[in-house]
Design brief:
Blueprint (H helix, E strand, L loop, with lengths): L12 H15 L4 H8 L3 H9 L6 H11 L4 H11 L5 H11 L2 E6 L10 H10 L6 H12 L9 E7 H5 L5 H15 L4 E6 L13 E6 L2 E7 L4 E4 L2 H17 L3 H13 L3
Parallel strand pairs: 1-2, 2-3
Antiparallel strand pairs: 1-4, 4-5, 5-6
Length: 270
C-alpha cells in the first residue's frame, strides 16, 4: 500500500483535503508535474500534499479552484482544516519544527521544551502525573532538541517569565543544572533568550504559552492548553500570536540583563 493509499479521508479534514487533491487530479488525467505547474510548485510538493506530509497554502488552493472550476471547494476545505481540531496535529507540528527557519517560544510556567535538561523534563512529567510516559517522552523531547545542533540551526527566540526560574521543579540541584543550561543556551549565536521580570506586570503571555514558527515563508503557530494544544495554520491567527510575542518582548529584559538574572537565581540554588 502506498503512502497516498493509506490516507483515510474520514480521519481528519487534512486527510480529506489530501485525498481530494489526489482524486480531482487523477480524475482530470493530470500528472503530479502538470498539477504542480498550475499552482507554481514542484512535483514533489504536490506529492507530499497528497500523502499528507505537507500542507498547502490557501493561495495554492484558490489557484486549483480557479483552474479546475471546483466552486471554491479546496479553499473552503482548507479554511475548515486550518480552523478545526486535527487529531494528527502533533506529527505535523514536529515536521514544521524540523523545517522552521525561526522558532519563537513563550512560556510563563515552566522552561520551554527546547531549553529543558533531561532531569528537568523528567521532573515536569512526574509532577504532571505522567510517570508512565517519562522514558518515551524524554526520548521525544531530546530528539526534538537536536535541531539546535545542526550546522544550520533555526533561529530560536525564547521568552520566559521570571517565576519559571524561581519555581522549584524536582529539587534545587535540578534547578541549578537547568539554570546553567539556560545560560549556556543563551550564549549560542542563533539563540535569543530573554526573561520577563516580575515587575513587568500583566502581559499577553498570561493567556497561556505559545510558539510561532516561520516555515518556508509562512507563519505557523501553536497555542498550549491544559489537555493537548492547537496547531494554528490560519494566517490571521498566527499573525495575532506573532504580535503578542513582540508585545511580551517589549517588557522583557535585554539579553545581557537576562543572563545576569539567570546567574543570580542560579546562585540561590547552590
Amino acid at each position: 500500500m502506498s503512502v497516498r493509499e493509506s490516507i483515510d479521508p474520514k480521519s481528519s479534514l487534512w486527510a480529506w483535503l489530501a485525498f481530494d487533491l489526489w482524486f480531482h487530479r487523477t480524475q482530470r488525467g493530470l500528472s503530479l508535474a502538470q498539477a504542480a505547474l498550475i499552482v507554481n510548485v514542484t512535483r514533489a510538493t504536490v506529492s507530499n500534499w497528497e500523502a499528507g506530509r505537507f500542507r498547502p497554502s490557501d493561495t495554492c488552493m484558490k489557484r486549483l479552484d480557479e483552474a479546475w472550476n471546483t466552486g471554491g471547494h479546496f479553499e473552503r476545505l482548507h479554511m475548515f482544516a486550518c480552523a478545526g481540531h486535527d487529531p494528527d496535529w502533533f506529527r505535523q507540528y514536529v515536521q514544521y519544527e524540523m523545517d522552521a527557519e525561526i522558532i519563537k517560544v513563550f512560556h510563563g510556567k515552566h522552561v520551554p521544551l527546547f531549553a529543558q535538561t533531561e532531569a528537568y523534563a523528567q521532573a515536569v512529567l512526574h509532577a504532571a502525573g505522567r510517570a508512565s510516559e517519562v522514558e518515551a517522552e524524554i526520548k521525544v523531547r531530546m530528539k526534538r532538541q537536536e535541531i539546535l545542533e545542526r550546522e544550520d540551526p533555526p533561529y530560536l527566540w525564547i521568552l520566559i517569565d521570571q517565576e519559571v526560574l524561581e519555581s522549584v521543579v524536582g529539587d534545587r540541584e535540578v534547578m541549578r543544572e537547568q539554570a546553567a543550561h539556560l545560560l549556556a543556551l543563551a550564549w549560542k549565536p542563533r539563540v535569543c533568550l530573554r526573561i520577563v521580570p516580575r515587575d513587568a506586570g500583566w502581559h499577553p503571555g498570561h493567556d497561556g504559552p505559545f510558539q510561532v514558527l516561520k516555515v518556508r515563508g509562512r507563519e505557523i503557530a501553536y497555542a498550549g492548553a491544559q489537555i493537548g494544544g492547537r496547531l494554528i495554520e490560519a494566517g490571521d491567527e498566527a499573525d495575532i500570536l506573532a504580535v503578542r510575542f513582540d508585545e511580551i518582548g517589549a517588557v522583557a529584559l535585554a539579553k545581557a540583563a537576562s543572563r545576569e538574572l539567570i546567574e543570580r537565581i542560579m546562585r540561590t540554588y547552590t
